[in-house]
Amino acid sequence: MDELLEPLIRGDRRALSRAITLIESTRPDHRERAIALLSALPDRQALRIGLSGTPGVGKSTFIEAFGTMLTERGLRVAVLAVDPSSTRSGGSILGDKTRMETLSRNPAAFIRPTPSNAQLGGVARRTREAIRLCEAAGFDVVLIETVGVGQSETLVAEMSDLFVLLLAPAGGDELQGVKRGIMEMADLILVNKADGVLLPTARRTVADYAGALRLLRKRPQDPDGFPKAVAVSAATGHGLESAWDDMTTLTDWRREHGHFDGNRAAQARHWFMAELRAGLLARLDEADAKARLGRLGDAVAAGEMAPGEAASRMLEDLSRRVD
Amino acid sequence: MDELLEPLIRGDRRALSRAITLIESTRPDHRERAIALLSALPDRQALRIGLSGTPGVGKSTFIEAFGTMLTERGLRVAVLAVDPSSTRSGGSILGDKTRMETLSRNPAAFIRPTPSNAQLGGVARRTREAIRLCEAAGFDVVLIETVGVGQSETLVAEMSDLFVLLLAPAGGDELQGVKRGIMEMADLILVNKADGVLLPTARRTVADYAGALRLLRKRPQDPDGFPKAVAVSAATGHGLESAWDDMTTLTDWRREHGHFDGNRAAQARHWFMAELRAGLLARLDEADAKARLGRLGDAVAAGEMAPGEAASRMLEDLSRRVD
């Protein structure tokens, strides 16, 4: 049994941290140990909440306030960041912890930044595995935070039970800035900064988004009134408890109607296929395959062999190599 | 030697048509015959021109007029359509031929619609192979026509020596409708319908696009003045000869500077890798792989196995199966 397993299950945050570092490693022996550890985890469930918000919307302040509120209710909260852009600059370890200073010192909370030096596909696998580690460590809520960049929102939605969009108060024109596909994934739209001078704008923005959500097809897995748009203020705390109530109402309804488990099952199938495809393609990155690929690629570029014929030969070669 | 080879090389259009039907087939014995036929083709080159234009821009009329003009110059012209949307409705055989009535009756021309019942990836492979068949059959120009839908323009650009964008006269605001990525691929922008009452608008549109092209980074493989925007009228024939002169000027320059062959070599490498990846992933569609996939997928959905573990087992299984 892995030495990390017992402290991890006890909820030890250092063990959790070390386990995540283990699953982030690409070293083959680490990978083997990670797979064994993941297979030995007990079957615990947290509520997985995907949270997306563009820079400037006050996402860190929101997570601070929302996460702290949840811990005051006796819940343990883990925050995982999925920011593919930050991987280029080598991660944002300092960034994430200083952005959420109160929460990072809270013993009932755990914050983990985006793994550094990872591709989007790699971030996806590691984040899913980190979620399972957080669940095994007894966390009740796992917030998976992402910025609105490229495909990261879809990735996060595909590993979450709930997908929450945090938006800033804005004029009607700016509604268009949120892509239809993102809106369709949202279970809850929170319009932040609903305080002070921005309160009237925030209320109008909520009405605008509520209208836009009504135009989208209602999903059969949702009760009346969902997806919904509400106003919150991370600064004053206004609306946070009510937003949490909305999340639990929606989750309870989905559990009762089988949609919660159904969604997790569909997600697990999806990730199985995604890993399988990635694994197959990874064969082309192995050293001897690469050498052969280079030679065939040169022959194709020189016009000595058709692309299709070269591909057939390489595929035969890959089959023979495993004998 | 394949019985189609000799008549194909002689330029027989019925043999060409049958050869394209052969490469479009997914039957394993047909596929084997197709690969052998493709490998036996002589090394002839046509100018491959990718042509994109949204519906309503007068693309068929343009191809009729432009193609006819080329045949009058003694050139043989093949037209291949890549319209992924038409594959859903089961091809557009009647459509393409009635759209280009004069050209379809011209003995120096050959028109082939999008293969029916094909995915975008499948359309790509078949179109590339059809291009090689047209070249072997002695055609001088292969027009690869596509509609501005999804990824089809990128696909077509990746198999063309020149990429031409056919646009309608429009107000400045509508310039925005052409995505920057598409503009960056264009070697030549033709503003059609530069005749009658639309002539002033067409001229203004040309100026607008010329300005937009100047803002894009000049490509090292291009001589001064390219990429360029010019006015044409498929209805009156105005500008068609001059557009062909532009195409040959650009092509000659690229040939002299090695960019023509360099581009074809890069494209061949690209398609080799694309076919290789598709071939690897196709292993998951084989009957016994599918059965095993179904069982593992069920176990993953039921929470009995982690997605990563199931993927590892399936990958091992795929390796063993080829022994």
UniProtKB/TrEMBL annotation, chains A, B:
CDD domains: MMAA-like. Its EC number is 3.6.5.-. The keyword Hydrolase applies. Residues 45-190 form the AAA+ ATPase domain. Keywords: Hydrolase. Transmembrane segments: none annotated. GO terms for molecular function: hydrolase activity. Pfam families: MeaB. PANTHER family: METHYLMALONIC ACIDURIA TYPE A PROTEIN, MITOCHONDRIAL, METHYLMALONYL-COA MUTASE. Belongs to the SIMIBI class G3E GTPase family. ArgK/MeaB subfamily. This is Methylmalonyl Co-A mutase-associated GTPase MeaB. The lineage of its organism: Bacteria, Pseudomonadati, Pseudomonadota, Alphaproteobacteria, Rhodobacterales.
